[in-house]
Amino acid sequence: xxxxxxxxxxxxxxxxxxxxxxxxxxxxxxxxxxxxxxxxxxxxxxxxxxxxxxxxxxxxxxxxxxxxxxxxxxxxxxxxxxxxxxxxxxxxxxxxxxxxxxxxxxxxxxxxxxxxxxxxxxxxxxxxxxxxxxxxxxxxxxxxxxxxxxxxxxxxxxxxxxxxxxxxxxxxxxxxxxxxxxxxxxxxxxxxxxxxxxxx
Length: 200
Ligand SMILES: C[S@@+](CC[C@H](N)C(=O)[O-])C[C@H]1O[C@@H](n2cnc3c(N)ncnc32)[C@H](O)[C@@H]1O
What we know:
Rossmann fold, binds S-adenosylmethionine
């Protein structure tokens, strides 16, 4: 337990030992607090990895369900196993697919209180545009890793070409969403930068 939270430290460590990126504790705590404040009961997550963040959510928020999509088969299988080992199959529904190709008719839930985008950073805008229609009118969208280790503030000095392209794409999404007439955005300097997006 950290700050009264049910934790899955062995799963987190096993992921980090293999360079599988999972959300930092600070970020998860923020997520859980924010969902509780907004009385969220359902979340659509893009990017399950091995199921760690969805397991943290459903184990720390009453009557909470997560539907989540993962592109990588090995991670999907491992997530399935973790979910089963902790008997969370009635709270977490996972799909193996590219979220950009996923047939939305196969969704388990019709709409969600929260959309949590935690997959390929270069595709944030595409994920957002595809899935925002399924967010309830008063729902919230959370996007993680928007600072990219602070690099977003110093793009000119990034030497690696691929990293520079990626950071430019993240910045493009950030600028686009902050300037959007239809959404309001709150930024939190937690972990690598988290945004909470709401319809105006
Ligand atoms: C940062 S990890 C997710 C971590 C997880 N949310 C957690 O905190 O436990 C991002 C995951 O997104 C997956 N991913 C990347 N592109 C994707 C896509 N187009 N569709 C679905 N999953 C994708 C990656 O394979 C990776 O496992």
